# Entry
Amino acid sequence: MTSTLDRPVKAPTFQGVSARRKFTNNLATVLVTASVLVALVPLVWVLATVVIKGFGAVMSSTWWFNSQAGMTAFQAGGGAYHAIVGTVLQALVCAVISIPVGVFVGIYLVEYGGGTKLGKVTTFMVDILTGVPSIVAALFIYALWVATLGFERSGFAVSLALVLLMIPVIVRSTEEMLRIVPMDLREASYALGVPKWKTISAIVIPTALSGIVTGILLALARVMGETAPLLILVGYSQAMNFDMFGGFMGSLPGMMFDQTSAGAGANPVPTDRLWGAAFTLVVLIALLNIGARFIAKFFAPKKV
Amino acid sequence: MRPGDRVFRGLAEGSGVLIVALIAAIGLFLLWRAVPALTRNEANFFLYGGNWVTTDTSAMQFGILDLLQVTVFVSLFALLLAMPVALGIAIYLTQYAHKRVSGPLAYMVDLLAAVPSIIYGVWGLYVLAPVIKPFAIWLNESLGWIFLFSTGNASVAGGGTIFTAGIVLAVMILPIITAVTREVFVQTPRGQIEAALALGATRWEVVRTTVLPFGMSGYISGAMLGLGRALGETIALLIILRGTQTAFGWSLFDAGYTFASKIASAASEFNDQYKAGAYIAAGLVLFILTFVVNSLARAAVAGKDRSAS
# Structure
């Protein structure tokens, strides 16, 4: 027998979730899940298109080691060697200039001037530089390097424009990596009487190195596909050109753009070249991305 | 101070100063190079929307009215498409997905940003446009009485329209908006979420009452950063949008030039300081536009950081 005390005085006030709330909740779940799928569709679609349409061209024996020298738009044959060399050269020269500047700005922001007025202005300017459109960077280099200093349009001018786009990415990743280096390491080094610059270059940087290199590779992958500076700052050449300071220069995005005006979509030869160049560019970028993941995974300092 | 320290500090500080000087130099050099062309411009730079006449460099006619309209229109259209999807992704990845799934999924969304824009351009024109053609024609035929879908100055079936370009642009800015939004959403205080759950809120109600109010400023600033990216996009739009001689009429089936694609399309004219100056003037306006949009975006995030800590 149950006493009155065991029974609740009032009927339970909890009610099940109303149908309307249930419906809204389910609808929201469906919508947010669907939006992820919506985002993945173009990714898969674009990559599949590039692989399927470009596969034929890159499998030809001449693709990787021949240039397009002497080829006409509708004559099959030739390769993308000139374009690969151009893209890689421009990216390397860009990296040689951007890496020291970018890493030093990162060091400055974390180790020296983070809280100072100059530090704050620099942080803001790096943010602004991140948002500078590539065409504006190209115009600036044109105004400075070509129009004012009187140099020729060249592959090197393209590299300079790419530097503007690459520096902020390197600064951001370097900054992020230096910030997670434990303060204890720096203090231990100071306590041993090691000067600050030696602490940074021998303790802090090596600890963060894998992260910094990862960031640099990703930044490099980002600038490799830039096309706008190529249009303004160097002409597209079908032949080999190893000279960064003169003459037209081939590049993969340049080759792609050249094909779009040479009748890609209508004639199979430029169409194949277009997607072949796209495939090659994606392969280069993928290699950099995989390299970056690899370094991040295997060379990261071991967690204790 | 030891000499090594002095040198190292100098290098680091110098690099910081270099960045600040660089931004100032961009503005100054563009202005300096634009002024000679502007003084020879017979049209009103801000109100002239017709074709650019740069062949006679002593009497040029150029203006940014059409460029500004097309740039803003296509960017806002892209933003309109990308914003809800980005919000959905950010909510799914931070609140719904299991940790094991959300990592790889987030990486895949980020990969969208790694694809070069020229590849988006050729994909948009040669692959996407034919696929969405029936839909575009249907929109034009059944809703053509709304100015947005009326027949514009480019062929609807050809696909070189703002409609196609906006969809491609939306895909390109999606990862930026998502990344910023996700970063803020993930910081929603655990206590607020648990309090909402304890009150019997459903999963969606938790999101609506805690995550959204907390992360709204991050979402807005992410959208602004996406807008900044869209305003400056060059090559994809140059490939997709058909050049046209007719004025822009606020239809999705118009074509034309944005600031960036107009400049890139004129690469052959960069052999004369006055001709180049006209395009540099347009570039300067684009620089200022993106500068303002990006500053506003950063300010929104910075405001959030302060109130959160």
Remarks:
- Chain A has a mean pLDDT of 90.
- The CA atoms of residues 153 and 233 of chain A lie 5 Å apart.
